Amino acid sequence: MTNKEKILSLAKNNNGFITNKQVKAMGLTTRYLTDMLKNNIIEKVKAGLYISTDYIPDKFYEILYNTSGVFSHTTALYLYNLVDRIPLNFDVTVSYDYRGSLQNNEEVNLFYVKNKFHDMGITKMKSPQGCIIEVYDMERTICDIIRNEKRIDSELYVSALKNYVKHKNKKLNILIKYAEKFSIRDKVASNIRILL
């Protein structure tokens, strides 16, 4: 197997994506990526990230690649099938001190939180195209939309809460734990109580 074939094999195991870091970890130079790019075997997605031309790009994976962002709010609602409307933009939460590429991305709606809340409720899941992405769990997402109710479409807000209450995997004890940490316990409890 040639080095280029090894790179493509690795990309195949990652839904077509390959990174500079992965190529270097294989003990190869990124010169191979440059050659593959020139020969239209791969395409550059963003700095350090490439995709095989045989694959359809995964926007969810691309958006978060090499950032500290986490999918949240309406994007997370969509990923959990709590709403059926595909988001026009990606909702991503970052910490207040974040300074990075997502701030200049017109496809992203940024939400900022204190550092102590940023990692709370992060989970990994597969994107609709099968790449592993980070997203807040359902309970954190419900707290986030209640906390940011004014920034959420009212129809999506109501639909998400109704669907969460009916969801077989809901964890009300975790929801209340998060709500207490965000100091919105009463607001969360009243919203959920109405729908139970």
Descriptive notes:
The protein has two domains: 3-55, Orthogonal Bundle (Arc Repressor Mutant, subunit A), CATH 1.10.10; 61-195, no CATH class. The chain has ten helices and eight strands. The chain has helices at 3-12, 20-25, 31-38, 59-64, 73-79, 115-118, 138-147, 154-166, 172-181, 185-195; strands spanning 17-19, 42-46, 49-52, 70-71, 90-95, 108-113, 122-126, 132-136. The chain has a three-stranded antiparallel sheet. Strands 4-5-6 form a three-stranded mixed sheet. A two-stranded antiparallel sheet has the order 7-8. β7 and β8 form a beta hairpin. α5 (73-79) packs antiparallel against α7 (138-147), α7 (138-147) crosses α9 (172-181) and α9 (172-181) packs antiparallel against α10 (185-195). The mean pLDDT is 93.
Provide the fold topology.
Layout: H1 3-12, E1 17-19, H2 20-25, H3 31-38, E2 42-46, E3 49-52, H4 59-64, E4 70-71, H5 73-79, E5 90-95, E6 108-113, H6 115-118, E7 122-126, E8 132-136, H7 138-147, H8 154-166, H9 172-181, H10 185-195
Parallel strand pairs: 5-6
Antiparallel strand pairs: 1-3, 2-3, 4-5, 7-8
